[in-house]
Amino acid sequence: MDEPDLGKPDLTALHELAESKYRAWHWKRLRPKLGRRIRELKLQKLSGIGRACYSIRIYRELLERAVRKRIGFYPAIAHESRHSEMLAKLRLDEFQQLIMTSVGYAAATLKDHITMDNRAAGDVPESALPSQNHYRQLEA
C-alpha cells in the first residue's frame, strides 16, 4: 500500500486555500466597491430602465474582475505548492464549473435587485425591464 506523501498538501486543501484567498480579496476589495457604485447609482436621477442598464454594466465589470482574480489565485497556489495536478483538465473543469455557478448566482442576485428596485420606484412596467437574455449575456 502506498504511503501518503506528507510533503505535499492534498488537492482539496490547496483548492480551499485558493478559494480562501479569493474570498478574502472579494470581501476586502470587491464587495465594498460594488456597494459604493450601486449606492452612487441610486443617487442619480435615472429611470428604472436606466438604473437597470447601469447596474448590469457595473456587475459585468466587477464580475469580470472577480473572475480574473479568482482564476489568478488558483494557478498561483498550484505553482507555489508545486502541485501541477491542480492544473489537470478534470480539476480545471471542476474549477470552471464552480466559477460559472457563482457567476450564475450573481446574475440571479442582480435580477432580483433590479426587480425589487423597480417595484419600489414603480416608474417602469416590469415588462420593460431587461429580459432573461441580458442576464445570460452577463453570465457569458
Please describe the structure with a list of short key phrases separated by commas or semicolons:
single chain; elongated; mainly alpha
Describe the 3D structure.
This protein is mostly helical and 140 residues long. It contains four helices and no strands. Helix 2 runs antiparallel to helix 3 and helix 3 runs antiparallel to helix 4. The longest helix is centred in the middle third of the chain and has 34 residues. The protein is elongated and about 55 Å long. The relative contact order is 0.14. The model has no long low-confidence stretch (mean pLDDT 89).
> How far apart are the first and last residues' alpha carbons, in Å?
46 Å
- Helix tally? 4
Rg over alpha carbons: 19 Å
Instruction: Please tell me the total number of domains.
Output: 1
Number of strands: 0
Helix/strand/pairing category: mainly alpha
Averaged pLDDT:
89
